[in-house]
Amino acid sequence: MNGPGDVLVTWDDHVLTPEVYGRVRTRNGKIIPFAPFRVSSMAIPSSSLARRNPAGVLGDDGRFLVAWQHESADGDGDGIFARSLCVDLDEDTLCGLDDPCLNVGGQANLSIKPRVRFKKINSDSVTGNDQLEIHGEFSLEPPAYFSNLDPLVDGVRVVVEAQDRTGRVDVAIPGGVYDGIRGWSVKPLNGPAQKYIYRDENRPATNNGIYKLMIQDRSRKASKQVKLRIKGRDGSYPIVAGDEPVGNAK
Predict the structure, then answer these.
(1) 43 with 54: CB under 8 angstroms?
(2) ∠85-107-128 over CA atoms, to 5°?
């Protein structure tokens, strides 16, 4: 088990195939993948020789290492082999190692003065006419500081979940410098960054209607504190009354 509560389970199976298998139970109680994955055959060609006695360790970012004993595989008795892999811990199709929501300065709830507003939700049958505003502040998890954030390179992912953790909105805002139509700008231009602003002049905006996003350093108010503001329109934000309270903006 890693720090956030994800659990890696490994075993050997001598009944069906002489392989080492694995599964991960995520912090949210889901099993990934649905079918066990074969660890040992990924590292060396399959054969009738037995693989047994696996042991594994799982990192907080989704990386894991599995080692096992392989019968007569190295020409000098039983060999010891290992395989390093990565799993999608929060089921967003990204390996945890590459997921900005699980890395430095990544996932955070708007725990300070959060405000989420949706308009035109369930008011008619037309899709793609919703409006969204998200305001709030959060504290970065150690050891991250505002200087660790770089949306110009990494982009930003915005996730809104219902209270039962069902995903409602999931939008990836790409990195890239503002080119007069879409992208990020930084203030001040000289010295350490204090504010990042994303703008998209397209209508509707390219990424599910998100046309403005601001990330501001608020460390003068409190250590590691960050302010966030997001605006979207003409997107699809299917929130219903039963979803409240709304949380988890990443």
Answers:
(1) no
(2) 105
Q: Domain of 61?
A: 7-98
Query: Do both 20 and 137 map to the same domain?
Result: no
Domain co-membership, 77 together with 122: no
Structure token pair of residue 1: 């088990």
Q: Which of 47, 63, 98 is the last residue of a domain?
A: 98
At 32-79, the pLDDT tens digits run 655 567 776 544 444 556 778 888 888 776 678 888 888 766 666 677
The dihedral built from the CA positions of residue 67, 68, 71 and 77, taken in this order, carries a sign that is positive
Nearest to 173 by CA among 200, 203, 149, 135: 200
User: pTM value?
Assistant: 0.59
CB neighbourhood size of 177 (10 A)? 10
33, 121: one domain = no
